[in-house]
Amino acid sequence: MSSMKNDPVAAGGGRPWWLGLAILVMGAVWLNGARGIASTTNYVGVGPAAIVLVVGLVLVLLGFLLTVQALRGQWAPAEEDEEAPFSRPAFLTALAGICVPLLTIRWLGFPLSAMLAFTLVTHAFGSRRTALDLAIGAALASLSWLGFSRLGISLGPFLPLLG
Questions:
Q1: Which of 53, 73, 112, 137 could form a disulfide with 108 if both were Cys (CB 3.0 to 4.6 A apart)?
Q2: Which pLDDT score, from 0 to 100, does residue 43 have?
């Protein structure tokens, strides 16, 4: 019982309601990004916007549920891990990595946008090898773009800045 007095979450204050709100806003950003993606379909019957739309809807739903849980006091965070405490800068860096493609894909193209997103997320998880992360991100994004192109799904031009 005395541990509940020292725990701000259990005592009713400090519940991270803002985390649910941040996830909800991130979902709204994804949904807004899905509006700008062409909804053409090919033999698979699903256009490129479908996955972005589904991810956006799931994020909005989860963000809403998490916010409601936090405000009701039903938040049950995992026990603190002394090796990896919550880091707001790391969270915001990962969030930026998720939002970068939605904001840059039209101008930079899929490969460069995905490369930047990959690098930001790896940085949020502690990697400090930026050049290697950029190279890995570029390779993964280029292979993904080529794979989708072979399936007949257009992710736009490879490098729109050059064309």
A1: 112
A2: 59
